[in-house]
Amino acid sequence: MITFETVNELTLMVTCQGMDAIYAKAGAFIAGENIGGKNYRFDKVLIGPNANNNLGQALLGSLARRVTGENLPLMKVMMNGDSVTYYANYGQHVVVYRLAPGEMISVESENILAFSQECDYSVRFIGVGILSQKGLCTTTLTGRGDSSYVAVLSDGNPIVLSNAVNRQTISVDPDAVICWVGNGPCDPQVTADVSWKTFIGQTSGESYQFEWNGGQSVTVIIQPSERRGGISVSMD
After folding, report:
1. pLDDT tens-digit series, residues 34-56
2. How far, in Å, are 4, 45, 84, 122 from residue 63 at the CA level?
3. Cα 186 to the chain's mean position, in Å?
4. Is the pTM of this model over 0.85?
5. Nearest to 171 by CA among 188, 157, 185
6. Do 73 and 25 contact (CB within 8 A), yes or no?
7. Could you give all domains of the chain from N- to C-terminal order, each with its CATH number?
């Protein structure tokens, strides 16, 4: 049995009882403890987390990740007994989310720190990446059991927005999005504010957003910083 929790907001603590495994960003391990000799080890993931279940699907997934820039270097942490291990990434904040069976999180690969093996891992085309630093694909993790944990990274303390209760429209800057969670893909619409001012450099800097309307029940996690990138349309 696996549980994920945060320590001081900057570190992921994984507690294992018995035998289990997780997938983590390669090199993210910082410490571990257990009784007796070390009972956990690290294996490089060459193709993908789904290789044991469906080799063909794993190969296609690996190719898609390499082509679209969603290819996250992963390691598999094999735990052969009770242990506690710790993971971090350059002092970034860590957010832990526990997926319900069938619940899906869509996340930028660079923001993934770790996930349990009860999550189904894949890459899905969303077709809106030309408008921001986000690629044409997004990494998706779908809950399959009671221990479907995902740990994501944020540059600074994240903000969580949800319209599950109030059904309000959520609009965010694509370059600040870490992930979104819902029952199914829940992909955003792209709204753009492009006019003649765009072509003479007189823009607000907020020409496009990701938008989820009230009919989509979604939780969106954003970070208080923006990725470098996006489009720049202007005329000198």
Report:
1. 999 999 999 988 766 654 555 45
2. 30, 14, 34, 11
3. 15
4. no
5. 188
6. yes
7. 2-222 (3.60.160.10)
